[in-house]
Fold:
Amino acid sequence: MPENLRITAPVPNNEGVLKPNLPPESPLVEAVDPSRVNRPNPQEQNRNAESMDLLLRRDSVFGRYVQQLRQTPALSETLGKALAAVFRPGGKSAAGPLPEGLPLAQLAAGVPAEKGDMVDGLRFQQKDSTLFSGPLFQLLGRMEERGDAQFALRLASFLKAFDGYVSIPDTTGAILLNLGTIGRQIPAPYAKKLAELAGRLDAGAPEGSIGANLKLLKAEILPLLSDYVAKSSDYGAMRETLSLLLHNTSLLNVSTRGYLDGQFEQLAADCRRSFGEPMTRLLRSFYLDAADGDRDKPQNRFLRSLVSLLSQEGGAGADGAVRGDILRSVLLDNSAFMPFLHFYLPVVWQGRFLFSEIWVEKKDGGEAESAPRRAEAPTRLYLSFDIQDLGAFEARVELAGKKADLSLSCPGALMPRKREISDALGRILAQNGLQAGEVRLKRGGRPEIPGIVLKKVMERKRAVDVTV
Structure:
């Protein structure tokens, strides 16, 4: 899109219009008394060394990540409170029945209430919440561990193509959303023409619609927006939305089945050279099942409604600030810098709403540490849960084999029942095949888990987790 700036004729300088102003005379320099000069404090410098290190790298990706992590509330402080505000047993709020179309009401309707539903929700987050699950990707994962750098590059290209192919409906929906936003950011004549063109986009079956959609985008929609930009030089919010539209269009352009097949054939050729023909035939069979079979993943009502909520444009259907906090929290949880696996589990227990978060610390997979030692290292879990009308709880669990040490902070009102709670926790661990080690209870105060998460992030600031 051309953005040429007009260059006018030079201004005549007959009367010295462009002569620079002379700088004022510098004042006389006075002598400085060395005894009055502030000297640096070495202890203070050491104390702030890490913060200074971040300041020097404030423009880095990690610096931006930590800055956002500190500014964004935890998921329990946003989504949990939002759900507790709209959830009541039986699906009713204080003002009466909740509208079925309200996204937060749909989210509350997906809250599990039975033990089996809770387990299924956690398993879904662990296994099925990612696109790359199933026999094909398990086999590719084992191949990647034994393959070379060239095979890893081919695998990355194939994964990108597969993601684009199965996400065609989502990409098309994002393009329609971008066009609707642009239509409200440009003048009415252009907006009317853009709405007519957007109405011709087909959001139906991916195989039959992608070619026509791409032709319409390239031949009519993008030239219309290019003409508007060239004539108006609009550098406002419309340009940001236009950048998203171009990104989604380019993604759709490489999401065809032909492109996916081409990437797989290149991967299969590398597989044949590295692993032989039998492994290649097995890989091809898994690929055909994944690409031609039913691509719909098992659905979880809560996560499906959460994605629907976050996909709403602007503040439609939910408070904009709450939606923004939820969206940033989920994005941070899935960042390559996050050294924890994060699970969230809102449930209804004995008529009370309970929002729980589980943080499982990832084991360091560095080459310096051998696999047996990594296996022997204890696994640390952090749980935070807020029970409606009762208060907030935090728990730290350290698992070493079958032995579990547990530390629980609970509301002060429960401290008189300290012995009863400790015995119940021991029975819960025993029922799940664990041996209760040290069980400690203390009165809850300021939340500690957010500080633990941030500290662990800072410790691993030079480590990036790129596992799928």
Notes: The first strand starts at residue 92 and ends at 93. The chain has a mean pLDDT of 75.
